[in-house]
Specification:
Order of helices and strands: HHH
Distance between the termini: 55 Å
Shape: flat
Number of domains: 1
Structural class: mainly alpha
Number of helices: 3
Largest sheet: none
Strand content: under 5%
Length: 90
């Protein structure tokens, strides 16, 4: 049926690649919108006061900065653990 419609395998691959790129673009746009909204919320003094009041420190940053902060914490905890006699939980 596809062959009789004049659609080749190359056309099918091109369509799949186009859909993949479109999905990637939509994902990037959504991530950018979420990041923008999050920055606006965290910048609000009322929100900051409420969050700080319950013991949380809101931080702005990029996903890369967040990943670096997580890695830094992981390394600190690993060093503490290695300095103890405790075995990891199974």
């Amino acid at each position: 049926m596809v062959a009789t419609a004049g659609i080749t395998n190359a056309d099918t691959v091109d369509l799949a690649a186009y859909r993949s790129r479109l999905r990637d673009a939509r994902t990037l746009l959504l991530q950018a919108r979420i990041a923008t909204d999050t920055r606006a919320i965290i910048a609000d003094p009322t929100f900051r006061a409420r969050v700080i009041g319950v013991g949380t420190a809101p931080r702005l940053g990029t996903p890369e900065e967040f990943a670096a902060a997580i890695e830094e914490q992981r390394a600190k905890i690993a060093a503490i653990h290695q300095g103890s006699d405790k075995k990891p939980a199974q």
